[in-house]
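task queued by scheduler; priority normal; single chain, no ligands, no partner chains; default sampling; output format set to structure tokens
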Amino acid sequence: MKKAKEKIAKSESKAESYSSSDWGKILTDWRVLLILILVIISVIAIAPRYENGRFHNSLQLGLDLVGGSWIQMEFQAEVVGFDTTKTPQDFLSELQNQTSDTEISLIGTNQVEIRTLYTRAELEPLFTAAGGRITSYEQGISKTTSDDVKRILQEKLNTLGTRDVRITTMTSITGVTRYIKVELAGVDINTAHSIVGEQGKFEIRVLTAENATEHVLFGDQITYVGLPSKDPQTGKWGVSFTLSDTGAAAFQDAAIRYGATNNPEAHPLSMLLDNATVFSAPLQANLAKELQTQPIKQLFATTGTGDIGMNDAIALEIHLRAGALPVDVKVIGENSVQAVTGEKYQKMSLYAGIFALITVGLVVLYRYREPAIVLPMVFINASEVIVLLGFSRFFLQLDLPTIAGLIAVLGTGIDQLVIITDEVLHEGKVPSQSLYLKRLSRAVGIIVVSASTVFIAMLPLAILPLSTLQGFAIVTILGTLIGVLITRPAYGQIIMGILSRKGT
């Protein structure tokens, strides 16, 4: 094969220029239009702007680029499969008697979640005493509890106004979640620990008169909080919770003293979390009547019917727990990045991207010695990165591995464009349109096979949520898909319009 520069010399003269009609045919092709539209939409989504002496954009920047902390934790609980001759409910009751110091819930017909970490050896005699045997053991929590943990953390973080939060869990193929990772941009490690690990201040108060309220009890008097449930008789959603003996007595005393038992509507009770009201309602008539004669430990806060009532019940459960997680966690990893370091990484990443794009352009120019080919290549390469950034604006935080993926896309993208160019210029000739399309199809076939291997190689990293290289894998896969489906066909049309203008 002759050198690339000889191929271009035979195909067309560098001194020739392209008319507006030639470019018009290229730019009006639907493949080229598609990429131009995507680039424009992506730029709008990124929203680059200059404000207050600095450049800003709407990209989601991870803690690598803005500073912050991350904490990775392990759940101190287990999901245990069992076999028994008893009914699951009877077995659960017996097992709860054997382990009265922890909370156990039935999560399937033959599985329980135990919210205290025991070894399998420690549980074997307890299961035997309860009338069953262990069939499987896995450290972690069920999907339902995992969702509760994520909601609780998200609610706390939203209340505190913490920005750029990412919470990810690692779930096995059996549906058991063992690890959770919380990333907090712009938050130091000590604050991150307090947000994740400390309870809020929960309080119940009663309205007395003229919008004045009096203290009833604090959250430390709540010994148990149930899951959101619907009353089968009324169809209303709510959350059950249990008070200690001291808490039940204080609740009764305040209800009687401030008139909530005689006139519930005039003296509603309010629940506050960190001094913000999260629930308020009067006592139900039957409860008010019972409180006049005896303390009540088991209470049920009603939130309403339908989806609104259910969502309010879910939120109330979190508040009743005062933001505490339903299961203990153990910190197994943590790190922090200073804000100054994050800004430095931003600049270095920007310089690295620009340097990579310029370097790619110079290498291609040296190979082909023809700007008419180099410019479309550089444009296609840059457009891929812009479209990727536009996509990531909505679902992906940019961190250092993600930026490494963007730079990798630049390199692999230019390789594939070179394959297309060399294939259509085979033997130093610009072929007829039919032969051109055949050669382009062959080049695209090679690219598709190459892209498939990249996709398969990156997929394991992309689906592991706690992998530090997840962003790199996702960007690489997206870049590969965008290249094969959008930018490669567009480049094929552009290069055909440029090189086949004069035929052979």
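post-processing summary
- The longest helix spans residues 433-463.
- The first strand starts at residue 49 and ends at 51.
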